[in-house]
Amino acid sequence: MNSKEAKDITGGLTATSKMPCPSYSLPAQACKMGSKLVSIKGSVCEGCYALKGFYRFKQGRNARDVRLASIYNPKWVSAMSFLVKNRKDNAFFRWHDSGDIQSIMHLGNIMTVAKNTPDTKHWLPTREYKLLTDYVEGGLEIPSNMYVRVSTYMIDGVPPLEFARKLNEHDNVEGFIGVSSVSKDKDEANCPAYNQGGMCGDCRVCWTTKENITYPFH
User: pTM of the predicted model, to two decimals?
Assistant: First the structure.
């Protein structure tokens, strides 16, 4: 397989100004939980950034639609593994700067890509608690280089620490399931991006820390 073939199969990777690494975006409209939360006042998905700004441009929308259609292609895992592995900046990878997990099969394919790229630290934020629960309790593997972060549904919501703790007790979780939240109190936020021009900069805690990550509401 070469780069062109891999891009044709997967729709290619995503580059965002904030991230220090490539990512992979799907349409926010396809989010299962997010599509419900977007209409709930005070939810983290109300006013979703991936439904406005640059995300509205036709070229980007078309690219995300192609990626969504590609995720069950039988060659998707090998193609994504190729793209992640063969980048010079392959130390870190972020899943879904927009969009979320679509199914257990989709989640399993993502985990296989992570397993195929052991030199890369993967970060997967998600609000799909049930899909993640069914995956883990079904005995399916989360490899050691994968950090899943379950996100609170509501701004200033209680972080689902107990939910994550119970899932981490399973022997098939070799990586880590952490938590993230959003707070209107910027003093509670431990994400530095919004004090440094909206960029991650040198920070990599989303891929490494077992502590709760709190983002400032903005």
Answer: 0.92
